[in-house]
Design brief:
Helix content is about 35%, strand content about 15%. It is an alpha/beta fold and about 375 residues long. Helix 2 (about 75-85) runs parallel beside helix 9, helix 5 packs parallel to helix 6 and helix 10 runs parallel beside helix 12 (about 355-370). It binds pyridoxal-5'-phosphate. Pyridoxal-5'-phosphate binds near residues 122, 196, 198 and 234.
Length: about 375
Amino acid sequence: MTIALAPDAPPRPKPKPGILDIEPYVGGKAKIEGVAQPIKLSSNENILGCSPLATAAFAETASRLNLYPDGQSNGLRQAVAEKFGLEPGRLIFGCGSDEIFTLLAQVYCEPGDNVVQGRYGFLAYRIAARGAGAEVRFAAEPNLRVDVDALLAEVDDRTRIIYLANPANPTGSWISGAEVRRLHALLPPNVILVLDGAYAEFAEDPAYDGGFDLARGAENVVVTRTFSKIYGLAALRVGWGYAPIALIDAMERIRAPFNVNLPAQAAAVAALGDDDFVERSRALVRTWRPWLAQQLGGAGLEVFPSEANFVLARVPAASGKTAAEAEAYLASRGVLVRGLANYGLGDALRITIGLEAHNRAVAEAVSAFMQG
Ligand SMILES: Cc1ncc(COP(=O)(O)O)c(C=O)c1O
C-alpha cells in the first residue's frame, strides 16, 4: 500500500541511493511448526557444538559483563598470531568475518566502483558492496565452480575488490593454491583479493592452500577466517582478517571500537587451545561427507564435490520433482536443509553434514521423497 503524502508533508529520512534495492540476508530456517527439536542442517553450523573449554571460558566472563571488552582483542590477537604463525599487527577482528567484508567495502569502494564475485558467491559480499554504493559483477561459475579466467574477465579499472570464498558457499567447490596464485598474479595491484576461508579447515586436498603465504608477501591480499564453523562459535560472532598493514590501518579507522564482545573473545581464545575438538569436527565431516554424497547420488540427486562441511545437491528436472518440494518433505520429517533459490539455484539444496543419525535420516528421507 502506498501512503499518499500531503503536498506540504515534511521531508522524511531517505536512505542513500541503492540501499532499498538490496535484498536483506535471509539465513537458513531454524524452526518447523510443531517440531520441538528439528534436525538443523541449514546453516553449516558445527553439529558437535563447541569445545567445552570455550563454554567454560564464556561462562567465566559472566561476572564481568559490566566491563567493556578489550577494543583491540589483544588476548585473541596473540592467540591467533601464535596458532597460525602470523604477525599480530596484521590482524583485524570482527563481529563475524562478515564485518571484515563490510569494512573492506566501506573503506575501498565508492559509487561507480565495482566488486567482482562468482555467480554463486556468498550473499554477504554483495550486501557489503552495495551498502558502500558499489556495483557487483558476477563471474560465470561453470559446473558450479569458481573460474579464475571468468573472474579476471569481469575486472576493469573501477574494480576494487574480488571476494572469493575457498571452499565456496553454497557450492562447496574449491580452487587450488596454484589457481589462487594465478588469479593474484594477473590482477592489477590496486585490486584487493579477499580469500575467505570460512571453511578452510575442512579442506583436506593437498592442492588446497588457505593463502597466508600469498598474503604475507602481497600488498593487496586479505585472508579472512571465522570461529563460526569448525570452532562452533557462530552465536558469538567472531571472525578475523590477515591483511597488509596499510589495509589494517585504514579499516581500523572505521571499525566500531568494541566490535568483539568479552565472552566472545574469551571463548575464541579457549577454542584455539582445543585441537582435539577441531580434529573431531574435521573427522566427522571427513567420514560422513562422502557417505552422504553417495547416498544422495544413489537416490537420484546430482551431487557436487565439496571440501566444506556441507554438500550441494540438485534435484534433476527429469525426476519431475523440485528442490522446494524436497525441502518441504524433509521439513515434514523434522529435517531442515537450505533451499538455494536466493542464490539463483532454485533446483538445489545445501545440506550440512550432521551426526550419523542425522545423515542417515536425511538419506532415508531423500530416498523416500525421490521414490514417492
Ligand atoms: C563463505 C562464508 N564466509 C563467511 C561466512 C560468515 O562467517 P561469520 O559467521 O564469521 O560472519 C559464512 C557463513 O556462513 C560463509 O559461508
